[in-house]
Amino acid sequence: MQPAGPEGRDWIREAPDAPGFERMEAGFAGHAFDPHRHDSYGLGLTLAGVQCFDYRGSRRDSLAGHALVLHPDERHDGRAGGPMGFRYRMLYLAPELVSAALDGGGTDSLPFVPGGITADRRLGGALAAALSDLERPLEPLERTQLVLALAEALRALDPSARPRGPAGRDAAAVERARALLEAESARAVTAEELEAASGLDRFRLLRQFRARLGTSPYRYLTLRRLERVRALVRGGESLAEAALAAGFADQAHMTRRFRAAYGLSPGRWRAMIS
């Protein structure tokens, strides 16, 4: 199968998934994404071609069968490494799911795999199971089992994240702040509100939020707004209408944030999923 679509057309196919566990498959003939950052783990498998990206200061080349591990808030881009393009499947996994899965083992920070690419069989097997069938929604218990398998595989690749005593005492406080941001993403949430919800002062909360979720509270809020934009556009709303409904000042504001988060414009994304 050709990595890219007919006549080199780029394409994206999204799976019917739950928030925090989003799967997709895509094919690109050349340039794929501008530099951008997610607030989730980007875990994937290269299926065909050579998948190139810049990550943590150097070029990475992923071949068919390699697993991708992009840590939350790490800047990266994407492009084909040859004339045939490339095809891959990806899972965007919320850091709070990883933290929750590992809390029983006393892990206080997110596992970090610095290289961006790995041939680790344990992680590859867990990813293959998670990405094997994009046509059907996963059952809740099945999804929970996959999250645990992926979290444990990531922890095994990061010695610093191995179990080391009881879970951090600020875990519940961070979760309360995260839940507030999730529920109120369409408006401006204040630092005072986060302090009241979490019981932590704002600077301790910022440190603990990043340690446990891999990003800042404001960036987390922005990504929730962008998820809302994507859902509204899929449902037929215009870009301008979706931007306002999701809490952005206007379409231009949303477009800047969309490109920074996903590496392509919302217009191009809408055309690729059509």
TrEMBL record:
<dbReference type="InterPro" id="IPR050204">
    <property type="entry name" value="AraC_XylS_family_regulators"/>
</dbReference>
<dbReference type="Pfam" id="PF02311">
    <property type="entry name" value="AraC_binding"/>
</dbReference>
<keyword id="KW-0805">Transcription regulation</keyword>
<dbReference type="InterPro" id="IPR003313">
    <property type="entry name" value="AraC-bd"/>
</dbReference>
<dbReference type="Pfam" id="PF12833">
    <property type="entry name" value="HTH_18"/>
</dbReference>
<dbReference type="InterPro" id="IPR018060">
    <property type="entry name" value="HTH_AraC"/>
</dbReference>
<dbReference type="InterPro" id="IPR037923">
    <property type="entry name" value="HTH-like"/>
</dbReference>
<dbReference type="GO" id="GO:0043565">
    <property type="term" value="F:sequence-specific DNA binding"/>
</dbReference>
<feature type="domain" description="HTH araC/xylS-type">
    <location>
        <begin position="175"/>
        <end position="272"/>
    </location>
</feature>
<dbReference type="GO" id="GO:0003700">
    <property type="term" value="F:DNA-binding transcription factor activity"/>
</dbReference>
<dbReference type="InterPro" id="IPR009057">
    <property type="entry name" value="Homeodomain-like_sf"/>
</dbReference>
<protein>
    <submittedName>
        <fullName>Transcriptional regulator, AraC family</fullName>
    </submittedName>
</protein>
<keyword id="KW-0804">Transcription</keyword>
<keyword id="KW-0238">DNA-binding</keyword>
